[in-house]
Amino acid sequence: MQTKRPSFQFFAFGTDGTIFLLILTAAAIAVPVLNLAVGAHSPVHVPTWLMSLLGKYLCFALLAVSVDLIWGYCGILSLGHGAFFALGGYAMGMHLMRQIGERGVYGHPVLPDFMVFLNWKQLPWYWYGFDNFAFAVLMVAVVPGLLALVFGWFAFRSRVTGVYLSIITQALTFALMLAFFRNDMGFGGNNGLTDFKDILGFDIQANETRAGLFVSSAVALGVGFLVCRMIIDSRFGKVLIGIRDAESRTRFLGYRVEFYKLFVFVVSAVLAGIAGALYVPQVGIINPSEFAPANSIEIVIWVAVGGRGTLFGAALGAVLVNYLKTYFTGALPEAWLYMLGALFIGVTLFLPKGIVGSITDFPWRRKPKKGDTEQMTTTTVGGTE
Question: CA end-to-end span of the chain, whole Å?
């Protein structure tokens, strides 16, 4: 006799993620309405700064989902996903910089302010096309995806796995951070890209624009979640789980493991790039610190806290950890990093499957009474005779 677990198992592992998408849809509608349609003196009014903060959390949630796709379901622990996030952010930042034009400090119609300050004579070739929004959106996906394709091809083809793969992904993002810090790279050096004016012709500081960015972040998270869910629930996803649990056996069965890993790694990188592109206009800046290896490690902590191999848990962990970070960096700024470390250690020791995974595996089945046990035994024996 089997007892069904509570229906909210579907909340974390459902094939279509209906409940998760309903919550996300409700937030995408309610938050902008409470910001734009409700007066500032109302107790239910959502201020613009809070809406932008929540939009940033949604971008982090999409980033966490992208990491959970490869770590939770394929066993690839990437400590360099911050690189793909930052590259997507830079692609969007380059477009926003091209839109400033003569409104910059130096009033140059083509060159961004930092290039004029550094005495650049012409726009670098890799900045061409970024004045077009469609081209910039394409680069948001192509640049991280192409880097993941090249890196993954050499890494997975060489059968680099485990801690060795984690180390070289961390080395990748560290190398990119050092490169982007250089002024002669043409990406603003340590100051990065900032002072954005508008996006698609709309004032980037306007409440309506901020609401649009929030809704876009929610839609991107929902679509990203569905894409990951479709991959996992397909036959392709079953092979990924087989690779995670027994890579050698999966390869022995005839599957080209490196191609499966490469595909899902590229998809994950593209999702991370989209998250970065939506993050930049909401925070107003992108600089090389986004490449810092510590950021990529923090992403893994989000996934571990929420629940690896759940997708929804990864999104929950990203929102929860970043909310705590926002609160404690203001209340206890010197102790925040210690709290983050303690949180990760505590989850590892007491909730090894994360919040969602631990709730799902909770023994909801009540202990059978003596009479129930005897009845079950009699039924089982009677059925075998």
Answer: 18
Q: Which amino acid is at 378?
A: T
**Cα–Cα distance, 277 to 271 (Å, whole number):** 10
pLDDT in tens, 315-339: 999 999 999 999 888 888 888 888 8
Task: For residue range 351-385, list pLDDT tens digits in order.
Answer: 888 888 777 766 644 455 554 444 444 443 344 43
Q: What is the CA radius of gyration of the chain?
A: 24
Which pTM value belongs to this model? 0.89
> What would the two tokens of residue 125 be?
């070739």
Which run of H or E residues covers position 58? Answer: helix 48-74
Write the CA distances from 161 to 17, 61, 272, 288, integer angstroms: 31, 26, 21, 27
Q: Which residue has the tokens 């004016």?
A: 197
Q: What is the DSSP string of 63-101?
A: HHHHHHHHHHHH----S-HHHHHHHHHHHHHHHHHHTTG
